[in-house]
Amino acid sequence: MRIKVSRRRDEDGVGQQQFVAHVTPRWNGMEGEKQNGQHVEIPVPDGFHEGVNVRVQGANIEFERYLVLLQLAADALDVNAYYFDDVHPFSNIQDAERYVRVHRDSSGPIHARDGPLVGLAHVLESDRDGYRKLVQNDADEHGNKLPGYYHTVTLDANRIGEAWPNHDLPKEVKHYYAREAVQADPDDPLAHPKLGASYQVSRWDDTLRWSDLERLNRELEETVHSVLENAGLDSAPQRGGGAFVEDAYFKADVHKPATAPTTLDLASIKQEQKSVVIEYLSDGLTDVQLESLETLATDGGQVSPDDIADEHGRHVGSVRRALRGIEELVDRGYGEVGLRSDYIGQMVYQAIADARDAVKNAAKTVADTVETDRVGESWAKFQAFCDRYGIDFRRRGDDATLDLGTNDPDDDPNVSFLVRRAYRLWQDANQDPARFRAATVSYRRPHGTGSSYPAFREL
After folding, report:
1. Among residues 215, 233, 239, 222, which one has the least CA distance to residue 173?
2. What domains, with CATH codes, occur in the chain?
3. What is the pLDDT of residues 416-447, one digit of tens each?
């Protein structure tokens, strides 16, 4: 049985306020027939005896009114409303949206290039961890230009938690116009866009129950309020409707939620990411780490450690070791790696560009003051070998250390090979063999075990 409840379009002029309820019986052991004639058992919750299953789809109706309206509709059809008194604990929510209608002359900061929608996608962007999607469409289906026509950012539960720490539900935040907006009279609510926040059931593995309705409503309202405030719009004007437009269903008598909403502080998220970049750059990065970051900042997309190794003539094991050392800047997984956000990418790119320029300037200064033959070609080969395999060779006074980093026997060259090859290049560079033989060789295995011993044991 299908029950449809609606208000006629000519009564309201804005969309349609309606819902359709598909009501079907359910009992334990109930079977259904597929199109090929096969009989299959229809699953029901454990301990369920008999009842009705109701799938409701509606629009422009307050969430908590659905159950009451369903009971009234059933009663009008001489169906016992008692069937809809008790909502089963397994009842769940598949879609929901809260919105405000904003005057078109005031909504620009929401979808601007430096506005909160772009900021959410830009700062929280990651190609390796979680889900995010930004859509920016400024033309309707007929090609009419309308700034902000359909701008959305979608974030899964993981990314939502970064922007709103006390939120768990994946959401789409969107600024959008009705299809009729271009032709609509300026006094018609359809001429003005909506700012909405909608629950995205496909972006997590959990289930939102009917008993979570209050939580859902709170998160969606807080999201809308905080985006408005981040865009510089007063979400609770003291007089009148402010930047908001009434429609046939909802008045513009805006107010702050009962509890103070979580603030969308994109500036602090940017500062946190900036601090991470500065910390790593100030502590110093190996050449392999710099090369890896440069590739990620310029190429973007799906890049694997093998791609980075091939581009710079490195061993893939040294690239993996380098990436493990900068995990707060990159996301790794499934054979791919990417920067944690586009914002981090911009900072890294600029920092590397500045560093490259500084190196070029320093090299030019040295070339102007020191004869180039003093830079031994053989010593350069030793350094290149260390860079290629991520080896950190340090000298302090009479002591020296050959740090191989994390060495994975399944991916990386044999430790003995690395030490012996480095020793030959050291000798070719006319360095003191005794000093190398007395150096300490150290490395770690992926699972935490490590080793440290004199280099002469490998020679």
Report:
1. 222
2. 1-91 (no CATH), 92-262 (no CATH), 267-369 (1.10.10.10), 376-458 (no CATH)
3. 989 998 998 888 888 888 888 999 999 888 87
